[in-house]
Amino acid sequence: MAVVDLRPLPVSQNPARRLTQLAGGLALYGFSMAMQIRATLGLNPWDVLHEGLSRQTPLSFGLITAITGVAVLLLWIPLRQRPGIGTVANVVVIAVAVDVGLAALPAPDGLVARIALMVGGVVLNGLASAAYIGARLGPGPRDGLMTGLAARTGSSIRLVRTGIEITVLAVGWLLGGTVGVGTLLYALAIGPLTQAFLPFLVVRAAGPDRPRR
């Protein structure tokens, strides 16, 4: 199967569409996180890890999140990944969007409503991931790890992301992070969802841009 080329492109190539897609994708990503939090059916795998680490150290959840992000960025070096506008925007826009989403979304009362909110949040997260990664302005720290591993190994985004999410989930759970049915749904579904949406949202280069195999 051909691997979609996700290497960053110069900002000068179709900037209006790409910057809009980047901002919209990141905003939707943050809002989808708020949906999953409000559903109270389990944290996503990375937040399970963050919570587990915060329980094992005197550091706050927010500081653990920042330290983890820096550590993941260091893993970019052997993968020859380079940060871009999207890498910086990832931190800023998502942080604002998730706070707005939490302020706007009431906590659902019934189980059916919570399940619907969780499923909707996971699907929206997959769409949002494909949108901002597909803008090719530089992925966020964790997505850069995913795309770098996919490029270096020749594996699909679906396989690599699912592997990363399950690994992070297992480590976080062993450290004491909270796991629920929503966590498992996210870990198993986010890779296939992102892979499915990417072909429709990835920005092609102006010249020949043949996908790598």
Main features:
213 residues, mainly alpha, 71% helix, globular
**How confident is the prediction overall: mean pLDDT?**
85
The low-confidence parts are 209-213
The figure for the number of domains is 1
Protein structure class: mainly alpha
Describe the sheet with the most strands: none
- How many H/I helical runs? 9
Give the distance, in angstroms, between the N- and C-terminal Cα atoms.
Answer: 7 Å
Total number of beta strands: 0
Identify the overall geometry. Answer: globular
Radius of gyration: 17 Å
- Helix coverage percent: over 70%
Strand content: under 5%
Order of helices and strands: HHHHHHHHH
Task: Tell me briefly what this model is.
This protein is mainly α.
Q: How do the helices and strands line up, and which of them pair or pack?
A:
Blueprint (H helix, E strand, L loop, with lengths): L14 H25 L5 H12 L4 H14 L1 H4 L5 H20 L6 H24 L6 H13 L3 H18 L6 H21 L12
Task: Please tell me about this protein's structure.
- The protein has one domain (15-201).
- Residues 209-213 have low confidence and may be disordered.
- The N and C termini lie close together (7 Å).
- Helix 8 packs antiparallel against helix 9 (181-201).
- It contains nine helices and no strands.
- It is mostly helical.
